[in-house]
Amino acid sequence: MDALRIVVQTPSANAHDWHAAVAAALPEADVGVWPAMPRRGGLSPQPSAAGGRGSREAAGEGSLAIDYALVWKPPADLLAALAAQHPRSKAIFNLGAGVDALLAMPALPADVPVVRLEDTGMAVQMVEYVTLAVLTEFREQARYEEAQRAARWEPRPRRRKAEFGIGLLGLGVLGTVVAAALAPLGFPLFGWGRTKKALPHVHTYAGDAELLEFLAQEHVLVCLLPSTSATRDLLNHQRLSALPRGASLVNVARGDIVVDADLIALLDAGHLAHATLDVFRAEPLPPAHPFWHHPRVTVTPHVSAMTLVDESVAQIAAKIRRLERGLPVTGVVDRTRGY
Amino acid sequence: MDALRIVVQTPSANAHDWHAAVAAALPEADVGVWPAMPRRGGLSPQPSAAGGRGSREAAGEGSLAIDYALVWKPPADLLAALAAQHPRSKAIFNLGAGVDALLAMPALPADVPVVRLEDTGMAVQMVEYVTLAVLTEFREQARYEEAQRAARWEPRPRRRKAEFGIGLLGLGVLGTVVAAALAPLGFPLFGWGRTKKALPHVHTYAGDAELLEFLAQEHVLVCLLPSTSATRDLLNHQRLSALPRGASLVNVARGDIVVDADLIALLDAGHLAHATLDVFRAEPLPPAHPFWHHPRVTVTPHVSAMTLVDESVAQIAAKIRRLERGLPVTGVVDRTRGY
């Protein structure tokens, strides 16, 4: 049997870090970087660096054989190569939790399973980001900053925490971990998911029928949903209006879940107090977008939870070893459901 | 035996809330507000509101008898009255955790025990404030705000958490609770106290001999010490210089622990990156103080942990009941130690 062949493709500047981590985690495999071909034990797989024997091998008969591909926003020719080699190509690992962009690609082979990254140090980052946003809101940090600019000593009465509901829209891995992290702070916690789910310390709601009732409880709504055909444009004028007056939105999921113009209209009308947005319909957020300079919007450049190379590669390597032994793995994407 | 007589004295605007809460928690007692005299079962003890029988009683023989006083920055005549009545006056309850101002009053009777407030909903507030300050620093929120003002999409590499030490200067009730709250976020935690103390997840140091070594570990130093003759001016140029370059200070304890001019000099020199200050040598912070407009200083008006009436009164009422049964209580101030 041929050696295991793995190809790594990422447009990010740290492609070499990914390659080196995969080669170290799976020393028995041939690991290459797309668009270079996989070469045996190669640690310098970029075409310009490969040279010599590796390059000649890459042009040989087995050069297109790929067992597993690790991808992020892959080019169509890589997907076409994987489709042509099925069933040798056994799985596509998406180098992120969100697979919406990948599933939308027409060239994605229908027969090759897609596996998404599960928590690999991303949950704790999400906990940090959401905790920071919730506490900034609860402690009225923006008002204190405004008072400081005017050198005004203005203590404000403490807000009633028992009335400061935090709503987690989406109760997957991240929503569950965020709920567990917020519970010790004493906020009333609410959660909404597609299907009913019981979580400690969280009053949960499920399905379309209970969405508006859920929204009516929240002082801060935290969006943690995947982007699917069912969630796109979910937070429109009607749904955002269901939040109580003075509520805030935190979006750490996907930009297309929120209807930008509706959010801005509700901020301008004073129905919503603030929005903390880490994700946008177009990224980078275009310089002319009104979010940048809106006084009630905090913009961060999609940094709430970054994919961490070592943790991600360890997870993928463990899954590849299971698949090679014929065992099932978690995180396989249900394409009907969209995540 | 006379009914239990309790007097409540607070300069705050919510004196009536305090009185009502004490009267409700100890219905068997006469509760009054200083400078009005205690009157039997009075719920409207202000001189103008008391009237009728209560007022006549207040002028009677037993009118100065006080078993327990609940005070905040008390006037000298109240302290003199308590001194004169000892041993009938059995304890002075300070309506805050910090007793430095009370202990500094010459009129404070030497024989009447002073009991400070222990955690009454203050610890969770401190957890909120410190968590917010630490995450703001770790997540480089100030840089993202600056980028937003310029409409610049500039994701920054994630800081290495393993190298982001958080130092808790003071390991009393608050320091202990703050450590427990920060532990799940994964920061390396260090703690310093007067005497050696073991805490889970915290590398602890003790005494003057280990202070500089402790300071050298911290990316964020959180001051949670009481103000005593041993801690006043503790954070001077020498000690603040022992923090690594780029470190930040959070002071939620007392303003006189920090030497303002030394802190500003180290911020200006770039040795320290930021200071988040909730307490000051003079409060309100004078309008001309350089902290207000310093670009690397965040000022909040002593709101990190506010005394909560209901929780505080429940604690004091429970202690009064124990004292009346001859049982010991916690939180009795050691005047030699200063807290």
Describe the fold and architecture.
- Two copies of one chain form a homodimer.
- Chain A has about 350 residues and is an alpha/beta fold.
- Chain A has twelve helices and twelve strands.
- In chain A, the strands form two sheets. A seven-stranded parallel sheet of chain A has the order 8-7-6-9-10-11-12. Chain A has a five-stranded parallel sheet with strand order 2-1-3-4-5, with helices on one face.
- In chain A, helix 1 (about 15-25) links the parallel strand 1 (about 5-10) and strand 2.
- At the A-B interface, helix 6 and helix 7 of A face helix 6 and helix 7 of B.
Could you write a compact summary of the structure shown?
The structure is a homodimer of 339-residue chains. In chain A, α6 packs across α8. In chain A, 32% of the residues lie in helices and 15% in strands.
Question: Structural class from helices and strands of chain A?
Answer: alpha/beta
For the CA atoms, what is the radius of gyration of chain A?
A: 23 Å
Strand order of the largest sheet of chain A: 8-7-6-9-10-11-12
- Most residues in contact, chain pair and counts: A-B, 40 and 40 residues
What would the principal axes of the Cα set say about the shape of chain A? elongated
Q: Strand share of the residues of chain A?
A: 15-25%
Distance between the termini of chain A: 33 Å
Report the oligomer.
homodimer
Write the element-wise H/E pattern of chain A from the N-terminal end onward. EHEHHEHEHEHHEHEEHEHEHEEH
Largest sheet of chain A: 7 strands, parallel
Q: Helical percent range of chain A?
A: 25-40%
Low-confidence stretches of chain A: 37-62
* SS field, number of helical segments of chain A: 12
